[in-house]
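Hypothesis: this fold can be encoded by more than one sequence.
Test: take the structure tokens below, design a sequence, compare later.
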């Protein structure tokens, strides 16, 4: 595989075909790399530390993050305890984790309605 953009024509890639395509696909053209490097050097020498702006997260992602935070706040400590017990070999999984509300008639939606 020869003639990759920005590389000398005598340069080639070795290895299996898939690896060669990956190398070419991941390659940064020499001219672009040089310009980027020069711009970074200039920015660092000038003391610039601009904070890049990113696009806002999609609402679905924000909702998932909120759910995860709430769920971690509610269940994080019990999960850590389960991991500790499993690591220490404190018995079968059901003894460690329990059945939640599945094994108890006095807990859950039916019990709350009564």
């Amino acid at each position: 595989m020869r003639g990759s953009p920005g590389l000398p024509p005598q340069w080639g890639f070795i290895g299996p075909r898939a690896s060669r395509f990956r190398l070419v696909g991941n390659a940064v053209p020499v001219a672009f790399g040089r310009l980027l490097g020069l711009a970074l050097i200039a920015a660092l020498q000038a003391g610039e530390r601009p904070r890049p702006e990113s696009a806002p997260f999609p609402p679905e992602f924000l909702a998932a993050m909120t759910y995860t935070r709430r769920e971690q706040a509610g269940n994080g400590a019990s999960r850590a305890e389960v991991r500790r017990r499993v690591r220490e070999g404190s018995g079968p999984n059901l003894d460690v984790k329990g059945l939640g509300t599945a094994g108890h008639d006095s807990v859950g939606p039916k019990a709350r309605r009564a």
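The chain has two domains: 1-51, 59-100. Residues 1-51 form one domain.
Hypothesis status: open.
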